[in-house]
Amino acid sequence: MKWQSIETAPKKSTDPDVSFGPMVILASTNGHRAIGYWSDGYGVRREGWVNPHDHQVMNYWNAFTHWMPLPEPPR
Prior knowledge:
- The protein is mainly β.
- It is built from no helices and five strands.
């Protein structure tokens, strides 16, 4: 897997009943890494990258510049 530009990150689910994108790995140029998903604001009241642990927009790490898909889980 390679890092991709944040502009290409998936922001919509393939499931029409889901209002947020799939979980991905996020990175910033200052070294921060996080797992998150994109929310259009429904349920969290703000659009942005959301922390899956507390479901809050990660506005403290606004500078995400790259993403990659999560790897397959171990079997």
